[in-house]
Predict the 3D structure of the following.
Amino acid sequence: MFCLTFLIVSLFHARQVIALCLANGTPEHARQYLQTDALENMSVGLLLGPWQSNFAVTKIAEILVTEVLGLHAKLHSEMMANSAGAIFAVGGCVDFNHADLGQKKCGLQETQIHVALDAWVGVAVSEQTAFQKMYPSLAPEDMGGMGYRGFETMYVTQSAFQEAYDSEGLALNFYLSYNTTHHDTKRYFTSISDLNVSDMISCADGTSFMNTEHMGNYYRWTGDIDGVTLQLDGTYIGKCSGPGGYWWLAPSCRHDVMACIPLVTASNGWFLQPLLQWSTAYGIPAAVGIIPSFADWSRTVKTTRSLFYWWVPDTTFLELQPESIVFPPFRASEWVLGNKRTSGSGTYIAKLTSPNLRQKSPRLRSFISKLSMDLNTVMDILQDVRTLPLSSLDAWQDPACSWITRHEHIWSKWIPVDTNCFLGFGVVDEHGTFLPSKTGAVSCDVCPPGTFSEELSDGQSRRCTPCPPGSSQSKASASHCDECKPGSVAATEGSVACTPCGVGLYQDAFGKAACVTCADDTTTLLKGASDKEECVCKSGFIESNRQCVPCGEGLTCPSGSTVKLLLDGESSGGSGEDRPQISQSYFSWPEEPLEIYKCPGPHCAGGTPGTCVGGRLGPTCDECPSGMYGTSDGCQSCGIPMMAVWTGGICGVLVLVFGTYYFANPRYMLKVSLAECAKIGFDMTLAFMQNLGVLNAVSVPWPEGLRSLFQFSALFILNLRSLGFNCAAGGDVQQYTATVLLFLGIALSWPCLGSLSQLPCIKRRGMAWDFHKTLGVTGSFLQVVFTTLCNVGLVPFMCFSHPNGRSSIAKYPNIFCGGPDHLTMQILAALILSMGLTHFAACSWAIKKAPAWSTTSRHRLTSVHFLIANFKPGAWWFGLIILLRGPLISLPTVVATDLPGVNLALMICVWLSYLSIQLLYLPWKAPLLNLVDGISTMLFLVLLAVSLHLEPVLPESILILEIIGLGVYYLSIGVILCVCVLSIFLMVLKRCSRSGARTGPRIVNLGQLPDPEEILETIEQIYFNLKAKKDVTELVNKMSTSLSVDDLHIVQKALNILSTDCELGGGGSSRGRIAATRISQMSRKSFASLREEQRQKSSDEACEIQQESIASGSSDEVKQERDELKDPPSDDISI
């Protein structure tokens, strides 16, 4: 078994040795693969062409690549159909033999073919140019010529040449030997009649004779008009004659066709132009014919004595040992013009490699670039292989190997030296570290990105040098570093890529290591700025007069903003989304686009300067054109109906003023009737709407629904512009004047009418107005509208600031504060505020006098009925609180017009103060009204809280709100701590002194407590008075009519307390309250002594009653009353 195994291994090894061409060749298992882009193994792909020279040199290259270079290689299964196919195959096209370039499927996958040798690209220049244009990155790399060119010319067979030379010393390989003037060369060749015309193609059957360009050049340079046919379009085609029209006859034998020497070419007329021009120019008696089949053509040449077209290197006619005919030397200047009477230059035969071979195997690429043979060497090789079939690759192995073993002196020069690095590579040591010189170098490696391949001083090798600062290289095997383009830099050496300048930086030069910073307040829109002009204004700045100025409030300025872009409504980036624009609710004139005005209303749409919506006008879009008034839908025409409405409204006001006196009821009623309750409710509603109207003046971005409601509420503080008030009054100043005069006129109308009623003629008819009632009606009007009156009076002082430094009146934003119109309005405001202040002072004086008037001059209460009628007697002064609330809720808007947050915070303080007083005193006559007032006030506070949430936080507001918040915080804690500390202090004081015992309760109970003994004496007095009355009906009626509801509740609660907690009743319930501890002793006196004093007092009173009764003759009644007083029932004073 061991012997059998050894034999198998030995045979296998022997087979490997036999399979190698070179004794020291690299065995297959030791060969290396190329790496695909996906890092997979791939053999070197070699392309074959269907001609012997290609087979021979490609097979030689395959053996050298595998055994000497040590790479896996394989011959591609599909051969190129022609030399153009080599261009497409090495370029990575899948269907590289397809006729249509667009259908060759190029660039779909990594190429599998890396090398194409013996490629006759000189005949495929147009295809090569087209491919490079369509696929520049895939175009094959031309590694230079093969060392020989493809030589095409006219040939003569060796037999004919030898016969002529032997018979007369005539050299048929020289063009002048065929001139019929001196020689009869026809006798050495076959006649054209001996050729089989069935193998030929007619000249007119799609051959090169039909090429108008070629035949035009022929006629141009030979002048042979008989050899061409002129067509209708002025072009020329070849003119064939002879038997069947298969032959084109040269001028020297055109008169006698049998004197012509047959000259044959193949396909559609290979090399036809030079053949025709040579025949005519040098008097060669040629009859040119075309045999399309390559096999028929080669057979005809081999079986007849003819002149023929052929090329080398090729094996087709090697056995004939043909002689090429020598023509005058090649003249490139003539050939380029179409004059081809000289010899040809030969066709360029190239070596093509795939563009990725530079990275995948530079050693193989170098080998291909050095591979070179001369024409004689190739022809010698072809002589040995001329009989080998192209269908059998194995048959070519031995001839190729034979040549390699015999010609090492030739191919050894093609093999690269390990330390002679090629372009794109650098020397490395045994560890793969790149070296600056060949010292210690063992091989080459591809230069990585960030370096370039620099030639060493010996001129034979290279090193990988890092790219200097200001340059970079992103690819491996680079021959140079690329300078950083403007807009990018490389700060360090060895940069793989140049870094674009960041935003705010630029670089306008090549090859720089650092970017330049843009000037102050400028930046760039994008990275990679390459010019100083790309530095534009930063976000929040705008270019004006070549300077960047801050945009400020009301102007949105993205980076790159300019005044021109603002006016044009365009963006610096062209998208339209980042253009500078006026913010919504702001306005500016196109003439002064940076002078920004703030619009309190929704009519400033922003965008480009000068934009208002709804046909509005003015710097705050608050005006409508003359003859129009503003609504939510835009400006509407005033028209006759609107004037009629206002005329009717004024008339209605006059009627209302006159009729109010007669409908007024100035009586004060302790109990509130349903009608009075309805009236008070109406007054509350009107006051609430006025308060909402005041809130509307605060600059808060209300949601659409709330905005509409607040605009409606603004009507109650006489903001009548949406109702077309300007149609009747005119401009803003006129409207304000009319509003002030309206107040003054209505307020003074009642006193004036009252004075007129005192005229004798009216007074005699009983139509005179009462003075006090007239004052009451006037006061009632001022009381109802006092909030509106104060707000109207404060309007000229509510100035909000524009971003441009100017300020406007909040209600009339087109009136600028500090101007003449503003001064006029302030004078009018002072007038109406004086009236309001006078009214408030008069009411304060009346409130002070009211308690005295109620007992001495009740008729005077008629004058202040409006002030006290809605409140219970104990809170008769509360109307003054409501009056004071009116100006206080408008003052925050005056103090902090530009700071809505502060404005709302101050309003909340005012309303909380009002709510505290209202809850403390419950002033309204009906409990329901107290409840409604409390709820409405709390809801208004909720609305203020919502408004404070909606208000955008302004930097100016934060400090003030912080101060207010800190004050409230510490004040709240301070008040609570004060109570605790004060209580502890009073406890200590009570233990230390008698004064503390009296002071403590007084402070805790917010006043001096009444003496229980005095209370008891009052109760006794009431008790005896009740006992003295026989009929309590009158008392019941008096309580029903004279006591208010609130007083009745207080009496009931007091009786309940006496009945339960003081045990003065008959065991009644606590009636909704917790009963106090039963009292066994009401004072320091004992109950027994108290009863004794009561009996003694009752006896004294009984004696007094008896004496009075005797005097009046009522002794019986006195006796009965005395008996009752002496012996009262025991349960009347039970506790």
Observations:
- The longest strand covers residues 592-598.
